[in-house]
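Field reference: sequence -> structure
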Amino acid sequence: MKNSHRNILALAYLGDSVYELYIREYLLNKGIEKVNDLQKASVKYVSARGQAKFLNDMLEQGLLTEEELTIVYRARNHKGSSHPKNTDIVTYKYATGLEALIGWLYLENNSSRIDELMKYIFDNH
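Structure field:
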């Protein structure tokens, strides 16, 4: 759990990139090739609203380990109050929780767990 003490927003920053790469690869593998179409299709996955929904679903299903929950809750409870204009603060904090989790798993070299969580998202949404 060595990376769990890193700045939680830095984990989310990294996780955002890793997450988006998974989304882009998934959409390309679905046969979507036009950039405009890729952009439109990705919104469902990369929007704060979508990310918050995916995380809430994982929480409801009990899919996360105690370590993973610790990362998610740290991100969700981070004291920052800024958020994009197009979403409320609660939704934004849940989205940040998912991104921080992905960033932490990436730094832990746990790509198999990222694969599992992303498969859950792709299969259930």
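Note: The mean pLDDT is 92.
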